[in-house]
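Q&A log
Question type: sequence-to-structure
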Amino acid sequence: MSARFEEIDWRPTPMGDISLRRRRDPVSGDEVYEVKLGDEFLMSSLFTAGEIALTRLGLAQLPDAADLDVVVGGLGLGYTAQAALDDPRVRSLVVVDTLGEVIDWHRRGPGPPGCRAGLRPPLPPGPG
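Response status: OK
Response body:
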């Protein structure tokens, strides 16, 4: 990325306009991904330690030998989902997000780097 700032995607939603942005940190030179809803910053790849630690704390309370099926509420930049997938006990992960636009960023790329595993469309509902 050569520019200091790039708006990767912008879409109107019922909750307001949402945008995925990428910029270069002027001090470190690192790429920073940000999600904004209207004028509010929802997420930044500069600040992911809390969500990763919270995921690990929650999973640490569960049995060591379990095959865990995990649900993550809110995909954002994907760091919570990836932290869950990094746990070898996690068998499956379902992400629930209010905004399909966020999930679409991860599906079609180029999107935020948080969830390296990629996303598949949901399975169709089963019988009954």
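Response note: The beta strands are 5-13, 16-24, 31-37, 40-44, 68-73, 90-96.
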